[in-house]
Amino acid sequence: MRKSTFLVVIILILGCSKKEQADLIVTNSNTYTVNDENAQVEAFAIKDGKFIAVGSTATILENYDSKVILDGEAQTIVPGLIDAHCHFLVLGRNQQAVDLMGTTSFEDVVKRVIDFQNKNNLNYIRGRGWDQNDWEVKAFPNKKLLDNLFPNIPIALGRVDGHAILCNQAALDLGKVTKDSKIEGGEVVLENGELTGVLIDNAENLVLDNWPKETRDVTIKALKDAEDICFSYGLTTVNDAGLGINAIEIIDSLQQAKDLKMRVYAMVSATKENLDHFLNKCIVKTDRLNVRSFKFYADGALGSRGAMLRAPYSDKPGHFGLMVNDIKTFNETAERIANSEFQMNTHAIGDSANHAVLQTYKRVLAGKLDRRWKVEHAQVISSEDFDLFDDIIPSVQPTHATSDMYWAEERIGSERLKGAYAFKKLLDRHGKIALGTDFPVEYVSPFFTFYAAVTRQDQQQYPVGGFQMEDALSREETLKGMTIWAAYSNFEEDEKGSIEVGKVADFVILDKDIMTVDASEIPSIKVKATYVDGKKVYEQ
């Protein structure tokens, strides 16, 4: 009898020892894996920062053990969300500036500047977020009131899209800007022959190039502030659309020291200095940083009439917009990048800019396979140009459609509007689409992105039935655009973007089922927890 008991105990011990140890097991969840089969599962196991098993709760618990087992309580889990086009560092910087998002008038802008300065007492004031299209008087603002209130403190207030700034005279004096100042790819806006203080696109640099340089400590604080915000929305990878050498080096150093956990896909600003620096090096790739692309500007923004159109603006006869960089520079830059391993991601809003970008891409990439070059925004496309996206990735921001729909037809007319914000057409032509927010141009929330893509409505559910619903995306397409397709656009689909064995264990727990909840509730979805490498980085 003792021998039999002893054998039973040995067998039980051996049976238990067959279980593989994991660092974390999640059970009883409603997990959308976003794998090739779009499978839903209950459970997964994680070890050394990667998913090692995915399946049913019973199967996972039968084969794996862990000191930490998290009961998912039927909550919805999705892969770590990827913002395919944003301005991560700028978001952080904005936490140290005047927030002008949602202002309803120029007087509202000025009040916020006064309140900000009363609290902070700075020698230089930056702000961002105003949009004259949201005001009753939709004309560009004028600097006169700021001049009276702040005669000696330079002020630069960025429009929501970053393609125009309003400066007071003290700021204009930094760059010696006069009514006769001219700059290629930009405009110094005059009214009755006098400076208004508004500088569009490249003209911004007349002032900003003379602004006090940001210290390393300020940059670090901005990055950490941005990380906190993004983790709270379930973002685990951000594609920062326009970084310089110094910022990238700081990001890398923080990540290596484990002081910055956010994964960053860096689009390097395509200046001559940056091109010379990175094209003479190999692609930079670590667990958290990927430097393998350049961000180039073809034109400006539609809201400030800087987007380059093939025919004049419907609400400004004779005005075609601006090419931020001349076509010769663009062609030469594209050729240099095409002869390297790097990707090119070009900002193109207007139909003229998109046409030029696509034609150049096709020419310089002829015979080159799997380059995954992107058009960032791809907002207004001529009907004959959609076919050119067969091997070019459209990287779009769905909330732009619902923000711009109030005035877009005034800008470009009803005929051109048919090819604007055409996300479904772009997806059907290419087969994949990368989705982002363009924050802080829009709000950070990826749930606003999801809602706009699916409903084509604002959060007041306007317009009834949705804006150009033929270009809405399904929920499945939208989730892919924010996960696996965004990862693909970064050459990272084998390491992230879905909950599969061997991939990094980035995932997000939501308080509602984003795939089945009533569409009106999508914008109010909250993140209960965000995990990177299987470790919790945010909890509600």
Describe the model:
The protein has a domain at 98-208: Diaminopimelate Epimerase, Chain A, domain 1. It is 32% helix and 24% strand. The chain has 18 helices and 27 strands. Strands 10, 17, 18, 19, 20, 21, 22, 23 and 24 form a nine-stranded mixed sheet that branches. Strands 4-3-9-25-26-27 form a six-stranded mixed sheet, covered by helices on one side. A six-stranded mixed sheet has the order 11-12-13-14-16-15. β20 (289-297), α11 and β21 form a beta-alpha-beta unit. It is globular, with a radius of gyration of 25 Å.
* Helicity level: 25-40%
Strand segment count: 27
- SS class: alpha/beta
The end-to-end distance, rounded to whole angstroms, is 56 Å
Rg:
25 Å
Low-confidence stretches: 1-16
CATH-defined fold name of the domain at 98-208: Diaminopimelate Epimerase, Chain A, domain 1
Task: Please give the CATH architecture of the domain at 98-208.
Answer: Roll
What share of the residues does DSSP label as strand, in percent? 15-25%
Mean pLDDT: 95
Chain oligomer state: single chain
Largest sheet: 9 strands, mixed
Apparent shape:
globular
Number of helices: 18
